[in-house]
Write a structure and sequence with these properties.
Elements: H1 4-14, H2 21-32, H3 44-47
């Protein structure tokens, strides 16, 4: 994902969550496989910080 490094940087600068098509797709794949996202430095969605049950 070429944009992955930028996601965390933009989140840090704006103080808002950033979701791209690539991060949303990766999140959905992880969830479909039964995994919880826990990827640090890839934005709040892939870090698991935006997950609600």
């Amino acid at each position: 994902m070429p944009s992955l490094a930028s996601v965390q940087q933009v989140e840090d600068e704006l103080g808002l969550p950033v979701v791209t098509a690539a991060t949303a797709t990766a999140y959905e794949i992880l969830k479909a496989l039964g995994h919880s996202p826990a990827i640090e430095g890839a934005g709040q969605l892939l870090a698991g910080a935006l997950v609600t049950n």
